[in-house]
């Protein structure tokens, strides 16, 4: 009985730990998806880790909230937030992108959380969208740029 | 032998439960969204939800026609189009309920309002409120970084 209980506890702890670990910035691994999918450089332009030079998660959060409002054209707005992430939303002419911007003391990372109309993802692998409207990868350069500027500024 | 079997069964059960939890985390991270019907979840730094709602409404020319605790009846009256939305709120979230949309500017009013107009105006309302919440989030983040420092 004791062994069974210990095994149950061990198994649950391992599973819960892996569940917790998955919602944090992680090195982006490009996986070639075939025809029509975004190139590695386009994908890395959005999803690569952005270093957090401050070493402080609270500063990363501030940088994200400040940076996302300074993008060229339409600003990103806060949809919701939780421990270690900001869910940001961008709207343009009836089309919408949702990004979960995760952060910790070491890095910030953009992950695809969803999209509406033109920005729905046709090929999503984990937290990364390999195929959507071509402007997705172009418009997000501004978000990445402003996040980097904001992080450097703190 | 029996002990090994029952221990293995327990491990298998735990792994299955764990996988369910992990997939739940991933399901939460891959939500499905709507253009303007999803609730806006609030954090503790939003102490006056009614205030952020009104700030957002003002930004996009919506006005309050009636207010009761927990609900603001919002109306947009623009070039003959009249939209009404009930905006509900509590300490945890703000959510929306469409009431009516009418076009009084057509030849034989009232007429229906084109969906693309409804989409634009209701998205604007939501964005206005989201902007007010974002500004509060920035203030909260600034406070955490610069004002709430522990003493050395």
Describe this structure in words.
- The complex is a heterodimer of chains A (154) and B (152).
- Chain A has 154 residues and is an alpha+beta fold.
- Chain A has one domain (26-152).
- Chain A contains 4 helices and 7 strands, in the order ααβαββββββα.
- Chain A has helices at 2-21, 40-47, 57-67, 135-152, and strands at residues 50-51, 77-82, 85-92, 95-103, 107-116, 123-125, 128-131.
- In chain A, the strands form 2 sheets. In chain A, strands 1-5-4-3-2 form a 5-stranded antiparallel beta sheet. A two-stranded antiparallel ribbon of chain A has the order 6-7.
- In chain A, helix 2 crosses helix 4 (135-152) and helix 3 packs across helix 4 (135-152).
- The longest helix of chain A is centred in the first third of the chain and has 20 residues, at 2-21.
- Chain A is globular and about 60 Å long.
- Chain A starts with a helix and ends with a helix.
- In chain A, 39% of the residues are buried.
- Residues 15-22 of chain A have low confidence and may be disordered.
- By secondary structure, chain B is an alpha+beta fold.
- Chain B folds into 2 domains: 1-31; 35-147, Alpha-D-Glucose-1,6-Bisphosphate, Chain A, domain 4 (2-Layer Sandwich), CATH 3.30.530.50.
- Helices cover 47% and strands 24% of the residues of chain B.
- Chain B is built from 3 helices and 5 strands.
- The longest helix of chain B has 33 residues, at 115-147.
- Chain B starts with a helix and ends in a 5-residue tail after the last helix.
- Residues 22-29 of chain B have low confidence and may be disordered.
- At the A-B interface, helix 1, helix 3, strand 2, strand 4 and strand 5 of A face helix 1, strand 1 and helix 3 of B.
């Amino acid at each position: 009985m004791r062994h069974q209980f210990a095994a149950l506890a061990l198994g649950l702890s391992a599973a819960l730990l892996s569940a917790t670990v998955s919602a944090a910035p992680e090195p982006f691994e490009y996986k070639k998806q075939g025809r029509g999918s975004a190139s590695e450089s386009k994908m890395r332009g959005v999803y690569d880790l952005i270093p957090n030079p401050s070493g402080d998660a609270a500063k990363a959060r501030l940088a994200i909230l400040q940076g996302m409002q300074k993008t060229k054209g339409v600003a990103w707005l806060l949809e919701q937030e939780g421990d270690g992430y900001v869910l940001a939303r961008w709207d343009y002419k009836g089309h919408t992108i949702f990004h979960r911007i995760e952060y910790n003391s070491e890095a910030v990372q953009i992950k695809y959380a969803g999209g509406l109309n033109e920005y729905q993802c046709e090929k999503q692998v984990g937290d990364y969208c390999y195929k959507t409207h071509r402007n997705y990868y172009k418009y997000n350069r501004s978000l990445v740029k402003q996040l980097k500027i904001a992080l450097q500024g703190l | 032998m029996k002990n090994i079997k029952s221990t293995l069964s327990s491990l298998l059960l735990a792994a299955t439960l764990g996988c369910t939890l992990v997939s739940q985390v991933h399901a939460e991270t891959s939500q499905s969204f709507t253009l303007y019907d999803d609730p806006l979840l609030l954090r503790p730094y939003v102490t006056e939800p009614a205030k952020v709602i009104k700030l957002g409404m003002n930004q996009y020319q919506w006005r309050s026609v009636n207010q009761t605790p927990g609900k603001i009846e919002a109306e947009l009256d623009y070039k003959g189009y009249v939209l009404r939305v009930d905006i509900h709120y509590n300490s945890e979230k703000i959510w929306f309920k469409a009431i009516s949309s009418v076009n009084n500017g057509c030849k034989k009013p009232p007429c229906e309002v084109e969906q693309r107009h409804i989409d634009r105006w209701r998205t604007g309302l939501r964005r206005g409120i989201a902007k007010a919440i974002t500004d509060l989030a920035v203030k909260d983040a600034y406070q955490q970084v610069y004002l709430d420092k522990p003493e050395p």
